[in-house]
């Protein structure tokens, strides 16, 4: 979509994938909620699930099927640890993959954490006109990723953004 002159608020769900975090200790999910509402988007829903392919896929599928949910931001489960399964759970749902998101995230992240960024499997894609971002579980990584996401969810961003694909 080419840029417009006005901000269009979107409905965004936040999913935390973790075997150890609780609602009280989910700093990454909370940071994402604060970042998205600060710029004017609406929190559609928020959930926390265990790092299990089927729990992740079920929650994401539920939101994808609801036309009122336009964006899903997932934090956690994108590394190489044995239980990290967010990418495996979500990528089969994509109609199209946003290849450049993971590439750009790792490029920016390299400036912050060096070569350790190669262990990030951050990815994004479109499924049923819902934009999905899969981010690492650290709060710092979520804040880094949000610098990219915020621009792409702003209808005023030039030369293009994802808003036209979602509304």
From TrEMBL:
Residues 13-156 form the MoaB/Mog domain. It holds the Pfam family MoCF_biosynth. Keywords: Molybdenum cofactor biosynthesis. The keyword Lipid metabolism does not apply. Gene3D superfamilies: MoaB/Mog-like domain. SMART domains: MoCF_biosynth. Pathway: Cofactor biosynthesis; molybdopterin biosynthesis. Transmembrane segments: none annotated. NCBIfam families: moaB_proteo, molyb_syn. May be involved in the biosynthesis of molybdopterin. Belongs to the MoaB/Mog family. This is Molybdenum cofactor biosynthesis protein B. It comes from Gilvimarinus algae.
């Amino acid at each position: 979509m080419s840029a417009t002159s006005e901000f269009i608020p979107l409905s965004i769900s936040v999913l935390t994938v973790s075997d150890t975090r609780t609602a009280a200790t989910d700093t990454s999910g909370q940071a994402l909620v604060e970042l998205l509402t600060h710029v004017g988007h609406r929190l559609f829903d928020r959930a926390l699930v265990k790092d299990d392919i089927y729990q992740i896929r079920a929650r994401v599928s539920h939101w994808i099927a609801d036309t009122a949910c336009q964006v899903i931001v997932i934090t956690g489960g994108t590394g190489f640890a044995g239980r990290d399964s967010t990418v495996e759970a979500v990528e089969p749902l994509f109609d199209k993959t946003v290849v450049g998101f993971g590439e750009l995230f790792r490029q920016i992240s390299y400036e912050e954490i060096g070569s350790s960024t190669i262990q990030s499997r951050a990815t994004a894609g479109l499924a049923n006109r819902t934009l999905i971002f899969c981010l690492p579980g650290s709060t710092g990584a979520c804040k880094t990723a949000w610098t990219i996401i915020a621009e792409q969810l702003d209808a005023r961003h030039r030369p293009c953004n994802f808003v036209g694909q979602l509304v």
